TrEMBL record:
It comes from the Bacteria. Residues 17-46 are annotated as: Disordered. It comes from Buttiauxella agrestis ATCC 33320. This is Replication protein. Residues 27-36 have a biased composition (Basic residues).
Length: 348
């Protein structure tokens, strides 16, 4: 037996592809580096109503005093591209946020709040009704390359930061048009509002006033149609969240948080009243059905006696014959009376 040494090679550790920033600097050949192509700023219009109130609150928010953002920077930020990388370890960052990041977070918050669905009748509350390209355009950070490719990295990074802060719930999927895996549906959470000093009672009051305003202006139906068109567009793109049960539970939790207990009690009471009315109507229809079943001989006699095959003298002759044989039958049992008429007429 020979003494042979077998060297076992360890499995290679998956390495993350490093950044190509150094290569880009080398290719630039001494030219000055562009700090940033665009400065994030909210350029869209703000609708009236609840959106205007939320936007007004967000404008005065100081991100350096946000305790949740400070806590996130202390433990480290995890980008979406490294979320499923087991070898990645978040690096703590300095507490204060750079001006570029603060501008991006503020512009994104204003854009989301201005284009959010505040209709309480929607299936899921606070959904952003614009795609990410339109959001980037209204933030002023949409970049188009010479080959037509669109880039909005500033928006994606800001979305990821607010997602880690639990301000947003993002559903990512493949876009059938561009073939990219990107955020397709974005929802605001309750912390998006409470972190800016907006209380639950204020949200409920604003939603109630918004609903009353929409009803008074005749916009309730148009808002519902807009939401249905949005769902139809998502269905055509193949975006379906029915199988994402944890996501649906989180969205239902947001709606339960924002819907007041008084409104839930009123809805339960109205539902019970509607149920009682439906039961009463059902019983009434059953009684009508039974009465129509009991009147079938009378209807058959009327149908035969008014037909061209029944002369008037023949009808009167049959009626006199039955009344002579059974004088009080018409008053005591009408159905039997008309059944005998039909039997004598030969139409039964």
């Amino acid at each position: 037996m020979t003494n042979q040494v077998i060297h076992l090679r360890a499995a290679p550790v998956p390495q993350y592809r490093p950044s190509r920033r150094g290569e880009a600097n080398r290719l630039r050949k001494g030219q000055s580096k562009t700090h940033r192509n665009y400065q994030p700023a909210f350029t869209g219009s703000t609708p009236r109503g609840m959106a205007a109130k939320v936007v007004a609150r967000l404008k005065s928010h100081d991100w350096n005093r946000n305790p949740e953002l400070v806590s996130l920077r202390r433990r480290g930020y995890t980008p979406w591209t490294r979320l499923f990388d087991s070898s990645f370890t978040p690096k703590p960052m300095r507490v204060s946020t750079r001006q570029e990041s603060r501008e991006a977070l503020t512009a994104l918050s204003l854009t989301l709040a201005a284009n959010c669905d505040y209709n309480p009748d929607s299936d899921y509350m606070f959904e952003v009704m614009l795609p990410v390209e339109a959001l980037a355009r209204r933030m002023g950070v949409l970049h188009r390359y010479e080959n037509g490719r669109l880039a909005y990295d500033v928006l994606l990074h800001a979305l990821r930061v607010q997602e880690e802060l639990d301000y947003l719930v993002i559903h990512r999927d493949h876009d059938t048009d561009s073939g990219q895996y990107k955020p397709m549906r974005i929802f605001l959470t309750e912390k998006f509002f409470t972190s800016r000093g907006i209380t639950v009672d204020e949200i409920r009051q604003w939603l109630h006033k918004y609903r009353q305003w929409a009803i008074a202006q005749g916009l309730a139906e148009s808002l519902s149609l807009r939401y249905e068109h949005h769902l139809l567009k998502m269905a055509r793109m193949g975006i379906d969240i029915d199988r994402h049960h944890s996501l649906k539970n989180r969205l239902r939790k947001i709606k339960r948080w924002v819907v007041s207990p008084e409104l839930r009690e009123e809805k339960r009471r109205v539902t019970q009243d509607l149920g009682a009315q439906i039961d009463a109507l059902d019983q009434k229809m059953r009684r009508v059905g039974k009465s129509s079943e009991n009147d079938r001989h009378w209807k058959a006699w009327v149908r035969w006696s008014t037909s061209p095959d029944a002369p008037l003298y023949r009808v009167r002759e049959i009626e006199r014959a039955v009344e002579h044989e059974h004088p009080d039958l018409k008053r005591l049992d009408k159905e039997k009376y008309y059944r005998l008429l039909l039997e004598k007429a030969g139409a039964h």
